[in-house]
Each structure stands twice: as C-alpha cells, then as structure tokens.
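Much of what follows relies on a compact textual record of a protein's fold. A record is reproduced here so that you can trace the correspondence yourselves:

. . .
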Amino acid sequence: ELQPGLVPIASIGYIAGRDTVDVQWAPPGQASMSEIPTDRLFYPVDLRKQRIEEIDSAEAKRRANLPPTVKVDVGNYQAGLAGLQFGQLASQSQSDDRSFIVPPGELTTPLGPLTVVTEISPWKTNRDLNSIAFGYLRVEREGEHRFYGYSAFGRGKIYLAGQTLYNGADGEEIHRVRLKPGLVPIAVVSFIASGESMLLWQRPGDVEPAAIPLKSLWHDPDMPMPPATLWTD
C-alpha cells in the first residue's frame, strides 16, 4: 500500500547472476503487470555524481596497490588450447545421466589429430562425442584469481594446476585460486550429451568476470595427448 509521493527503490544485480533485472508494477486501475515507465523513475543528480567520484577514487587506490604485471615467455608454444575428441565409452550408459562423467584418463583413443581451441568462454562441442581442451593458462599478475565454471547439464570438468576447478555440478561453480605469474596447466573436459562448457575468470584488478582471451591460452604442439598430471581423478 503506497501513498502519493517519491518512494525509494533500488535494483541490484549480482556477479554471475542473470543478465537482466526485470521490475514491473500494476498501479491502481491497471489490471496486469507492466514495465515501469521512465517518467516515473527519478534519481538525485548530486548524489549520483558524488557516488561516481567515490567509486573512481576507491578504484584508483585499489589499482595502485596491485602487484606489477609480469611478462611471461611462452617459448615455442602456440596460441590456443589443444583440442581432442573421443568416442563414447561403454561405461557411458544412456540409462544413467551421471555415467556420462568419467575420469578423463579413461579417454585414451582420440578420433583425429589435435585441433586448436581458441575460445573457452564458452566452448561449443559436439554433443555426440567427449572433448578435451588442454594446455596452459598464462598468468601475468600474482594474486587471487576467481574462476566461474559451467558445463551444460553438469556434464563436464575443469582442471587447473592439477586441481579440480569444476566437478560437473549443475549450475556454476566459483573458486578462488592464488596464482603466481607463469604458465599454469589447464584442461576443460566436455562429456557426451553436454555440448557446451564455459570458464570465466576475474584477475587481480578486474572488477567483474570476463572471458579468457586467446592471448592467455597456450599449448605445446608437440604434446599429442594431455598428461596424466592434469587430472585429480
């Protein structure tokens, strides 16, 4: 029940949440919900300007305290992750959804030569096959990194530095990992009937999660199969 006047209102969107926030209303005399027209929404100009200045000042101080960026030599490695595809295993039964998730070490017979995966945010894969993208993540600044992992229907796994970053759970998983500059081993696994995996990161100094750019993904062209040290299972 509202009285005529200016009523405080706020809408908040969280990191890794929905892309949009939808607020509707049905004022007296209106039978159904609708968008709130812009001529009914107001904000104090001076307060907004002050808040922007406060945010800019805090951001400048935060960036001033960041560790320096380090140039990481990639040697003879090539840009992108190495990609392989594998057929369905006998243990991946259609009658049990969770059976699609197997230890990646059991995928030993690729269906063809290495390909180059240039994007993992997201990474589209063949739903009829198991797929692995592996190589190295180039880290150029020491500090806490946040990773947001996802796989369609929870049929995927993501490994970083020999540890499980995403374990095939429904929805997204968020992990915080402290990393030093260098080339960090990484693998993204998309199992049968998935079709899509995704990994976003938020580096020290980043204000929100972002796609991992190609310049941060590398692989050794002379490594035909992912090493067993990538997995934890």
